[in-house]
Write a structure and sequence with these properties.
Oligomer: single chain
Distance between the termini: 41 Å
Order of helices and strands: HHHHHHH
Shape: globular
Structural class: mainly alpha
Radius of gyration: 17 Å
Number of helices: 7
């Protein structure tokens, strides 16, 4: 049985590993199955910007799930959130690896986005498990929309990046379906708008910073 101090230290460790991209990955990157191809400097800058957005999105996902797991009322919901966070750690590692292959760095604002997302996730958990699951559904739906947009912008010849995004898209859709099956409640329209606004701000800043 962990003491309050132990739990606090575990959360701090998770936060540090997330923002420093040090979380372990259970699976190799899907991009490893594709050969690197020649891309122009302009293409590399744009693809790296998109992958930086996706990397920050995965930092936010980790924080959201960890915050929700902290305040979830049901033990089963806590386990589900922790499992989702573990699965998302693959995505975080894959995005980090692709950025490194482009000699690019993650967003400098990741600590800020982690803190905001963790707070939002913890607040969602306090409202109730079904509302928290509804938050997962909406988050994953918005992530899927982002990935669809990015796939349209990634050159066809960059199969390494495309394979990563395709697998991420499949996993995110699965998380949304799982949350629905667990009893998620649809969020109010205003909540969806606020989430989209926050997401837009994140993408605008993470593309370059």
């Amino acid at each position: 049985m962990l003491s309050p101090l132990d739990r606090f230290l575990v959360r701090c460790d998770q936060a540090l590993k997330t923002v420093s991209s040090a979380l372990p990955s259970a699976h190799a990157s899907p991009g490893d199955k594709a050969a690197e191809t020649r891309l122009s400097a302009q293409q590399i800058r744009h693809i790296a910007g998109l992958m930086r957005i996706n990397h920050t999105g995965e930092v936010c996902a980790q924080a959201l799930y960890q915050g929700q797991a902290l305040t979830a009322r049901s033990h089963l919901t806590q386990i589900a959130m922790q499992q989702a966070a573990q699965e998302e750690s693959d995505h975080l590692a894959w995005c980090q690896q692709r950025l490194a292959e482009f000699n690019e760095q993650p967003s400098q604002l990741n600590p800020l986005w982690y803190a905001l997302s963790f707070t939002l996730g913890a607040a969602a958990g306090l409202v109730g498990d079904r509302w928290s699951l509804g938050f997962v559904v909406e988050t994953e739906n918005q992530v899927c929309a982002h990935l669809d947009s990015h796939l349209k912008q990634i050159p066809h010849e960059d199969q390494k990046t495309r394979k990563i995004l395709h697998q991420m898209r499949q996993d995110e859709a699965h998380h949304a379906t799982t949350a629905l099956q667990a009893g998620a409640i649809q969020l109010p329209f205003i909540a969806k708008i606020l989430m989209k606004g926050m997401s837009k701000l994140m993408t605008m800043t993470s593309y370059r910073l």
